[in-house]
Structure formats: structure tokens, C-alpha cells
Amino acid sequence: MIYFDNAATTKPYEAALKAFNNTALSTFGNSSSLHKFGLKSELEIQDAEKNILKRLSHDCSFPKEGKLIFTSGATESNNMAIRGVAELMHRKGKKIITTKTEHASVSNVMDSLISQGFDILKVNPYDNNVEQQIADLTDKDTILISAIAVNNETGFKIDTKKLFSLVKEKNKDTIIHIDAVQAFCKLPVYGDLISISAHKIHGIKGVGGLFIQKGIKLPPLILGGEHQNGLRAGTLPTELITAFSSAACEYPYDNSHIVSLRKYFEEKISEFDNIVINSKNSIPDIINFSILNIKSEIMLHYLEQHNIFVSGGSACSKGRRSNTLLGCGLPNKAIDSALRVSFSHQNTFEEIDQFFKILSKGIERFSKLKVKG
Q: pLDDT by residue (tens digit) across 56-108?
């Protein structure tokens, strides 16, 4: 099997699975219980929080002085951040700035806030200097900026350090939320609120987190008990949290292998006519490209027949035409033929060779495209 769909989800590390199993067998007490078995579970969660925050702060001068709230995943984290700020700050202003190419867990929440009277401004990140664009729109009424650090379809990256600095110069009280699902463990991330997810870094599905900078008092999204300082009710999944921590510790700091994979992939793709790369200013992990005249669904399933797994775009889009690629200014022909390959450091050069061997056969079969030379 060749798995090139790591932006959708990653294969759990053995270390993460081991941490999950060990916790399930030996530390399965409820972390809210007052006996020593519950305390042991609570200490495991506290250690996990420290490990994840340490990784979030790596190579980043921005102080992470707040709290990590564990959630069911980044969709919940994004909802908690955006809805929380809207409820917390609506008396100070109703202006929110975001981008046109956010993940659905951000864009759909923003659309719902419009009906509540919020003024939602959406900029195109593919226009020049998106960080300055957002800062120029920021004023005294701007309560929230929400931006995706790395786009999940193209890998396009925003300079969150620059964004944070420029926006705070305009209005120090504006809260900055960063969807860092594809950036965590790959890039430094600056923000007051930061959403992350375990299964994008070889953890296990079902757990994520929202970093909340010290001094921000979000209202709870889920009501119930007083778990996690009353911010998110519900018994904490200690097993998933320790696996998340293990994955964050295991994920390599050196991304040179992925950089080399990306370079090699682009060299191979340049040998083909009528294939265009859609990813610009992207992290090396994600590359989006179009095989013109061949629908992405056709090629995707052809590759699947040969045990090669890629994506036609976001795993959450379910076949709808991509807003991200529309924002890139691509014609429908290119959008409808777009494929996304996303690497893990576990991928190999041999897998890339095999991918292009099968891809070339598919191209010949479906459109009679010729390989140069």
C-alpha cells in the first residue's frame, strides 16, 4: 500500500498505540475521581498537556502561558474558539475577519454568525500579502481574526507571526484564532487561540485541543460538570490524550526528509505534459496538482485500484467544488481534475517512483497524454 493522504489523517505511531493501551490497562481511572486511581489519571493528563504545549512552543518565541483544553478534535476546537469569542466580545464589537478558504469547521460557523448580526469579512489569502490585508481591515470594532495557518488542500501557509504582530499593532484587544491543524509540529504558530488535532500527527482520532492564552475567559461550549476548569464538560479520554502526547513527542523536528520527497515529486511531475501544480507558497508536506482533461475522481479510483491512496481535496468536502481552488483563481477544468498528495516522514522515494509508474499508465489510458522524452 502507498498512502499519500496524510493531510486527511495519519497512521498512528506504534508509540501512540502503546501509550493508549498502557493507559487503558493501567490508568483507566476517571480523572475526576478523588481516589488515588483518579489522581493517577489526572497526573497523566497534566503531563500530556505539558508535552503538547512544549511542542507547540518549539522554535517559537511566542509565550504559551495559557491552558490547553482537550476536545474531541479540531472541529470542536474551532467552534469553541469562534463561538466563544463571539459570545464573550459581542458587546465590544461584531466585526470578524477571516479568509475565503477556511476549513468548513470555521467557514460554516462564520456563516451562522452572520444571521446573528455579526459583520464577517472574508479576504482571499491568495492575493498578495494576506497578513497585511487582514491588518489593514482591523479596527476598534474588530473582535476576532480567524485564519488557517496551513491550508489543508494546497498547503498554502500564512505567516502567523507577522499576522499576530500586525494585527496587535492595530488593536491589541483583537483576539487571534489560528486553525493550526496542518501546521502543528511543522511550523511555529502564533495566536491567542490555537486549534490542533491528534490524528494529523500520528495520534489517534477522537481528540484535539484548543490552546487559550492566559487572560482570555471563554464561555463553555459544552455544559455539564466542572471538567477542565469548567470550560468543557465531560469525562476526559485519558487514553487518547496520552496517545496524543506520545505522538507530539515522537513527531520529528527535522523535516528534511519531507522536503526531499517534495523536491523529488516535483521533478517527476515535471516530466508530464498537461499537469500543473496548484500549490504555491506551501509547506512541503502537501502538493495539489491537476491532470488536465482527467476528472480527479476517475484518477483517484484508478490509483486506488492499484493500492495507492490520494485525495481529490479536503476529506470534508465530499465532492463539492473546492472553495480553496476557486480562491486560487483556477478554472473549473483545473479544479475538477485536481488531486492532493500529502506526505508523511514515513513515505519513501520508492513509493513516489511507483506512484508515477501507475499514474503514467492511468494518464495513457484515460487521455493518451505522453511523457516527455
A: 987 676 666 899 999 999 999 999 999 999 999 999 999 999 999 999 999 99
Domain assignment of residue 347, given as a range: 2-7+253-367
Residue 316 catalytic?
A: yes
Reported as half-sphere exposure (CB side, CA atoms, 13 A), residue 174 has a value of 27
On whether residue 372 sits in a domain, the answer given is no
Is residue 28 assigned to a domain?
yes
The residue whose grid cell reads 483517484 is 300
pTM, rounded to two decimals: 0.93
Indicate if 241 and 269 belong to the same structural domain. no
Domain shared by 322 and 174, yes or no: no
| Residues 46 and 67 grouped into a single domain | yes
Which of 185, 249, 316, 328 is the catalytic position? 316
**Residue-wise pLDDT tens digits, 339-368:** 999 999 999 999 999 999 999 999 999 976
The answer on 258 and 243 residing in a single domain is no
Write down the residue that cell numbers 506504534 correspond to. Answer: 14
